[in-house]
Amino acid sequence: MRAAETMEDLIYLYGLVPTKEMAEKPLPSYKDFDGKGEIYPIKINGITAVVCKLDSQTYTEEMIKERIDNDMDWLQEKAFHHHETVLHLSKLFTIIPLKFCTLYKSENSLKESIQSNSSRMESAFNLISNNEEWNLKIYCDDKLLKKEVSANNPAIEAKREEISSLSKGKQFFEKKKLDQLIEKEVEKEKIAVSEAIHLHLKKFTVDGNVKKTWGKDVTGRKDQMTWNSVYLVSKTKVEPFLEQIQQYEKDMKEKGWQFEATGPWPAYHFSSLS
């Protein structure tokens, strides 16, 4: 019996869908993780798991870790497959999306996990049902903002007046301090403006969270990402939410601010079961 269990296929979990939704709309045909078979549903009472099988001898824990750490082409291909599959499903169903490479040793272990967490999953379904996840990234041209802050900031103006009354020798060192003050005030302005926008946008949403910003090496852009946030928006409020972002873009573009709203995405940030 033990030998048979060790040969059992692994279960790769893409996401969880309310069973009643899948009863109304059957699961479309999508290729599985290997591209050889298809994904399929496993009904567990009121929750249906969307999964595929993986050969347990081929996909060992060591093999997967090795590939993730050292095979970028494999990782990009498989992560893209996972993302696209979940994205397609999210357009058809209310889905709790699972992270890339969420694996179970058997169907039984998957069923046990879902049954023991069913109340949390039902709460997640209630939260994300009829809502969409949207991401907003805000970028800023530092040179333009520095010019504006330098010309209109009271603390900087006071420092300039202080320097003008000093001797030439002392002015040299104080001007360095002025440059540091300008940099500091620019950063404060970025955060203050972005936080105000975030708080205003939350009025259009069910919830909103701040994420870590990305560096230029990741974005590939010349301007700096100053803000990165994610929102859960009612489908009835998506249009005014996006219109408000467009208005910010229109009003602030000349000052070097740019806004990048993307979505709707699977609700990874508002239905996490980790």
Descriptive report:
- The chain folds into 2 domains: 2-114; 132-265, no CATH class.
- The longest helix is centred in the last third of the chain and has 34 residues, at 168-201.
- It has 11 helices and 9 strands.
- It has 274 residues and is α+β, with helices and mostly antiparallel strands.
- Strands 1, 2, 3, 4 and 5 form a 5-stranded antiparallel sheet that branches. Strands 7-8-6-9 form a 4-stranded antiparallel sheet.
Identify the notable features of this structure and list them briefly.
4-stranded antiparallel β-sheet; about 50% helix; 2 domains; disordered N terminus; about 270 residues; 5-stranded antiparallel β-sheet; alpha+beta
Which whole number gives the mean pLDDT?
Answer: 88
User: Quick one: how many beta strands?
Assistant: 9
Order of helices and strands: HEHEEHHEEHHEHHHEHEHE
- Helical residue percent band: 40-55%
Which shape, going by the Cα principal axes? Answer: elongated
Gyration radius over CA: 25 Å
Structural domains: how many: 2
H/I helix tally: 11
Low-confidence parts lasting 5 or more residues at pLDDT below 50?
Answer: 1-6
Q: What is the makeup of the main sheet? A: 5 strands, antiparallel
- State the separation between the terminal residues, measured CA to CA: 32 Å
Proportion of residues in extended strands = 15-25%
Structural class: alpha+beta
